[in-house]
Amino acid sequence: MRPNFEDWLLAGGMTPRAAQSYISRLERIAEAYGDVGSHYAKDRCTSLLDDLAYSTADKDRGAPNRSRLKIDGDVYNGLATLRSVVNKYVEFLDA
Q1: What whole-number distance in Å separates Cα of residue 74 and Cα of residue 55?
Q2: Alpha carbon distance, N-terminus to C-terminus of the chain
Q3: What is the reported pTM?
Q4: Best CA proximity match to 1, nearest among 33, 68, 15
Q5: What is the spatial distance between Cα 82 and Cα 23, in angstroms, rounded to a whole number?
């Protein structure tokens, strides 16, 4: 993860607590999948986002979490939050 991501989040109006939450989640993703920057270089994180995908149809049928990350609680909301973090990091790297 590039070190100025937190500064970028803060400059975009995010609170320090929210920015730290994004950083923590991105680090958690990196522990399971490796450097997110490498995923960006490979395919702008498309395959990573695909692995974190979990639809409402998946939720409705009680499909298991296919990602490498353990989600306590609602899998749909947990993975949506993690996808949001990855998408925000892609936005940062695109800038």
Answers
A1: 12
A2: 15
A3: 0.94
A4: 33
A5: 11
